Amino acid sequence: MSENQGFRYTAALAAEIEQRWQDRWEAEGTFHAVNPEGDLADPTAGELGEKYFLMDMFPYPSGAGLHVGHPLGYIATDVVGRHQRMLGKNVLHALGYDAYGLPAEIHAISTGEHPRDNTLANIANMRRQLRRLGLGHDERRSFATIDPDFVRWTQWIFLQLFNAWFDPEQQKARPIAELVEKMGTSDPAVIDTHRLAYVSESPVNWCPGLGTVLANEEVTAEGRSERGNFPVFTRSLRQWNMRITAYSDRLIDDLERVDWPEPVKLMQRNWIGRSHGAHVDFASPAGPIRVFTTRPDTLFGATFMVLSPEHPLVDALTTPEQAETVAAYRETAAAKTDVERQADKHKTGVLTGSTATNPVNGEQIPVLVADYVLMGYGTGAIMAVPDGDARDAEFAEVLGLPTVEVIAGDTIVNSSNDDVSLDGLSVDDAKSTIIAWLETSGHGTGTTTYRLRDWLFSRQRYWGEPFPIVYDEHDNPIAVPDHMLPVELPEVPDYSPRTFAPDDVTSEPEPPLGRVDEWVHVTLDLGDGPKQYRRETNTMPNWAGSSWYELRYADPHNGDELVSAANEEYWLGPRETGGTGGVDLYVGGVEHAVLHLLYARFWHKVLFDLGHTSSEEPFHRLFNQGYIQAYAFTDARGTYVPADEVEETVSDAGVPTFTWNGEPVDREYGKMGKSLKNVVTPDEMYDAYGADTFRVYEMSMGPLDVSRPWETRAVVGSQRFLQRVWRLVVDEETGESVVTDAELDAATLRVLHRTIEGVAADMDGLRFNTAIAKLIELTNHLTKAEVTARAAIEPLALMLAPLAPHLAEEIWARLGHEGSLARAPYPVADPAHLVADTVLCIVQVQGKVRAKLDVAADATEEQLTELALGEANVQRAIDGREVRKVIVKAPKLVNIVV
RNA sequence: GCCGACAUGGCGGAAUGGUAGACGCGAUGGUCUCAAAAACCAUUGUCCGAAAGGGCGUGCGGGUUCGAGUCCCGCUGUCGGCACCA
Known about the structure:
Helices cover 33% and strands 19% of the residues. It is built from 28 helices and 33 strands. Helix 3 (102-111) packs across helix 4 (115-131) and helix 23 runs antiparallel to helix 24 (768-784).
């Protein structure tokens, strides 16, 4: 190292500064947030002031460690948290770990290492990598979902759901005791079917390749597991379910009360899939056939009916002549999976031989069986209106069935009987008219259906929360009492569920806990003396812990309650009447739009109904971050080659070509991953540039919600910026401070206060990329003007503090301040310095810029017009034509129209 | 098929209906150096021009406006969600 490197802001110096400040922050508890009560309260703190509760989506501690894409959101939330703290808020920001998960279990299966040991090691590694980033977290509030103390409350919440039912009249959950009282019985056969957590024998998604069942949300449109991409089959099994469908309306309606990105709200609405329509009964020889339709206004156009092959009335409706045809059709349909049915694009179906009566006009219409009608939605039977529905039209054409025109433009035609006429009405009016008629005549009712299914909650895995449930001698589920929680996982000889060939349809789930006989069969005294019970051997899905963890950050060590009322209300309670409450900012990827965010909202609402929270929604404001993507390169054989060894050459035409070891390679764009040989780690960035440079680079790459490619060679730009800042404060040769007490010149004052104003607005809007650009401009101005006055350096350091906190602290200290700047006030622009004496005025002719004038800020329209017309270039553009109009937006713009 | 988002230099990106391309990377030229790296300075949308200046330019085609990357209508492409949902 040469002499003058000694005081330069190099990676080595950055590392020294950064680690020193990280140690000091930890020692001083700089980022501790004060609670209203409990162990994290501080009686000496006085008024707590306004709170700001900030959250990142729970990470899963992967064994592979972090790559540079992972910290993007954590850096962003840290910038927000530090900024809010400097605005005087009491900021709650911590990070826990979603630590149950398939990778640890798979690792355990292959190595025999306990998943807990492996998971805890991964958490330790991740904590180390993240600490080096300098995140301002309250580390006292960190936890993992596998901590017995956390599992205890996850199980407690499960029992809240088990011990509650949904009252459709009040549209809320109520204690099950109130249902027992209302029904006048405690018979499990009656009561258990109403619980919010209930066991049912129902069709579930069985995935032999994973050896477990899956929730609907975990199955892709292609009928495969979202995790692992294994085939999924429908099996009827006894499993735990959560009655999330009871909350369909509130889950949709309350989306309007939260501050979330529209696309996410839309995805949730579509997933819940509420559609308004009517149930209509069609008389038939086998009794009424009930259909669901969203278009009752087209009833007069119903020319046939279609039942799903699984519909219970098919047998009764099939005439002897058609029996063989129908039986054969149903057999073929049954042999097909859902995916195969959908893959078949052309519609098939057969006549039952019976007819049904269209209630609006008494017409006898044929009843058919076809597999494009699904048993799982609506009633499994439809009225077919070829004039309105494309599928019905296609089917009618295949079978030569008639079409009656009932829709002309946006009005209804050919639709009247002796009682009612829809002719000439709009679709909406026709719907309400016909529903009223159906209800008075007893042929049907207006109704609403949902696409959402109940949440399948059992998994046949080892590494998850055990259910706090035992079964008695009648096989009825009994809650394990509160004082026996948590129910801990037993040690097992083998962590794997029985897995099968991925396409083995006949396989049956077999959870690993079922093999630990002495754990499964227990003697407990549940109030009526010691008795034999059998434990539930399924475990909860990974979503359990993440469905309520926001509450625990607010009161992480509370042994008596999930969260104390005062702590919950302070951190999460609504801040205006009618508000939902919830976390002030929740940042994470859009891939959780449906799964995690729907489950968490559901549990939070149940806890609200039962009086455990004052907030109705867990996350008031949601922000979806983009991803850091990367290029990967393949050689002629399609094998990935190390991305950091690929050389790029750009032709004169601007077309890049890529070579590795002289061989041409192909570039592809996507994720970062070990197998793609394109991983860049934060550790490499710390070594080469330091954490502050890495943070500034990630934040400057583009808007937070947009994905963008990683480019290591561009990181140096952020380092050069921080080096220029450093040089404003420190002499690189002597290490001495160069800061002066000089007064700022007018130009610098104006640049400084414009920067303060602009950066403040950008920080509020989470536009860190443009905030950084403005700070660079200020720094470049100070460098060029050779201004090193304290009056400029102090606000620069304060504005830099959320983004590059270690460097900012170091400068702050060198300016003579004793304490951390974590709570120093964020700079505020002085309006007096925002106004300029002269401004740039753009002169346009026909909307095209022809001159730029330096004019007095208070110039009048007349003065500006005169000045503009006096410009030679403007006169040349006017070219002797008559000036028809002059538009003046004083003092910045003059547009001359000829 | 339905719903949604996006489209700007060689690259990442910036622009309350008012100077398109801030800021950064890269590239080119220079300072320093025996030399190189680093750092610093300058130039950098494109075409014509020595310059002054001018033409063209925000995926494509129209429109509104004194003025459109921005607003409206119609396309194309890329990405995401849902998908025989009655």
